[in-house]
Amino acid sequence: MDPGDIAVFDLxxxxxxxxxxxxxxxxxxxxxxxxxxxxxxxxxxxAATLSGLSAEDLTLTNPLHLAGTEGGSNAPDRKALPEQRAxxxxxxxxxxxxxxxxxxxxxHALVINLYQTYLAMFRTAIGx
Length: 128
Hints:
Elements: H1 7-31, H2 46-50, H3 94-126
Helix pairs in contact: 1-3
């Protein structure tokens, strides 16, 4: 049994890849905090990557499951441009970047925990 064939593990793998790429971008932003004219970069929200899923991937398998939403008014409002720039044109706000790093780290820990929990449930189910 390959865990990648199971949707929940495939989703976790995609989320971990997104987290890895975001951490790389945030590290570049922090490393270039003193570089003139550096524009801070970030990825689109992970939910945007899920928009490529087909309707059959999101089918309810049990009538007791709750239907999901598609962002709607609860979607975060992301600004394209930073609020402030340094006199040299740099747009990196270290406090904002470090907050994003901490949030990404928390998300990574959550995804790893969920992955391990599901793996343990599958092991229990098959008697290992």
